[in-house]
Specification:
Helices cover 14% and strands 32% of the residues. It is α/β, with parallel strands linked by helices. The protein has two domains: 2-89, Rossmann fold (3-Layer(aba) Sandwich); 92-205, Hexapeptide repeat proteins (UDP N-Acetylglucosamine Acyltransferase, domain 1, 3 Solenoid). The protein starts with a strand and ends with a strand. Bound molecules: coenzyme A (COA). Coenzyme A (COA) binds next to strand 24.
Length: 217
């Protein structure tokens, strides 16, 4: 069994904790040892200990970590700080009822995929990407590293999400074309409920139907 610690003791951390013990990767289960939170307001959460990073490294040397916060850049910072104290990324943490093609879907280390999600074929999910409840990802999609899909996001076929993209709840994309993917640029934010019909430039926030860039004041 792999000893696993969850970085972040917020709502999403508790959600992941509720099923992590039932997940397996390549036949091996995870032994959830608790949460890591820099400013713990309690020493125990839902029956599991909450530790500072230093406490976790001392109590569980060599344990694996997964970051359970929605913001892509925060997740990257947490993973980097954990690595500094010898806590390295876990293998992909995939809810047992997630449907995907075992041969033609790849998951990077530290990625998290929640219940009800379906990924079809020829999909690459980057390291530390987070795919929340009830999402669908179609054929020939790339979910970049540290990308976040909130609950109920639908990514159509031939779509590329560059690293650090964030999709709010219920956002969707239309499909791209073979060899000409619809591309969401690195660090772009797609608001809840948006319908993306065109490429989105890097670091831009879009909302609405069809999704348009928000005016900056
Ligand atoms: C798009 C988003 C990032 C903008 O955040 P923000 O810059 O803080 O925006 P504000 O909340 O200040 O809202 C500014 C205006 O945009 C509107 N707005 C906010 N989000 C919107 C959305 N997704 N679609 C359309 N309009 C939106 C607000 O109603 C507000 O309008 P008003 O000025 O007429 O009152 C955010 O609203 C969003 O959609 N985040 C996703 C959250 C989410 O799904 N989380 C998942 C948790 S699991």
């Amino acid at each position: 069994m792999r000893t696993l610690l969850i970085l972040g003791a917020g709502g999403f951390g508790r959600e992941v904790a509720s099923w992590a013990g039932r997940a397996t990767w390549q036949g091996e289960a995870f032994d959830l040892a608790g949460f890591i939170d820099d400013h713990p307001v309690t020493s125990e959460l839902n029956g599991r200990p909450v530790m500072s990073l230093a406490q976790a490294a001392a109590r569980h040397p060599g344990a694996m970590v997964v970051a359970a916060v929605g913001n892509p850049r925060s997740r990257e910072r947490l993973i980097a700080r954990a690595a500094d104290v010898g806590l390295l990324p876990a293998p992909p943490l995939v809810h047992p009822n997630v449907e995907y093609d075992r041969e033609y879907v790849q998951f990077g280390e530290g990625s998290v995929v929640c219940a009800g999600t379906i990924l079809t074929v020829n999909i690459v999910v980057g390291a530390h990407a987070q795919i929340n409840l009830d999402c669908t990802v179609g054929h020939d999609a790339v979910i970049g590293e540290y990308a976040t899909l909130s609950p109920g996001v639908h990514i159509s076929g031939n779509v590329t999400l560059e690293p650090y993209t964030f999709f709010g709840t219920g956002a969707v994309t239309v499909n791209g074309l073979p060899g000409q993917p619809l591309t969401i640029g690195a660090g772009a934010v797609v608001g809840a409920g948006a319908v993306v019909t065109r490429n989105v430039p890097s670091e831009v926030t879009v909302t609405g139907v069809p999704a348009r860039a928000r005016e900056t004041s």
